[in-house]
Amino acid sequence: MATVKKTTATETKVATQATESVYTAEELATNHKVFNTSYEIVAVALRLAGKTAATVTEAQKIIDKFKSKEVK
């Protein structure tokens, strides 16, 4: 008899995150056109977030948050 394994949402999320590639901050900044912004914005956003490496999805969230900050 076959066993059926039920997966939870957490297991699915972990599996999805595990398949996404992680890039260094330098690689992400060099490919800044993916984020429709400049090299400097990507580099500074990741540096201020304390990231030396990130996935494209994670970097996009960090960059969007950085770009939406109020300038004082």
Write up what this structure looks like.
This protein is mainly alpha-helical and 72 residues long. It has 4 helices and 2 strands; from the N terminus they run αβααβα. The protein has a domain at 20-67. The protein has a two-stranded antiparallel ribbon. The longest helix is centred in the C-terminal third of the chain and has 12 residues, at 56-67. It is elongated, with a radius of gyration of 17 Å. It starts with 8 loop residues before the first helix and ends in a 5-residue tail after the last helix.
Instruction: Give me the strand/helix succession.
Output: HEHHEH
Uncertain segments are none
What strand line-up does the widest sheet have? 1-2
* Count, helices: 4
Largest sheet: 2 strands, antiparallel
Q: Rg from C-alpha positions?
A: 17 Å
User: pLDDT average, as an integer?
Assistant: 87
End-to-end C-alpha gap: 66 Å
- What structural category do the secondary elements indicate? mainly alpha
Range of helix content: 40-55%
How many strand units? Answer: 2
Shape label: elongated
Brief write-up:
This protein starts with 8 loop residues before the first helix and ends in a 5-residue tail after the last helix. The protein contains four helices and two strands. With 72 residues, the chain is mostly helical.
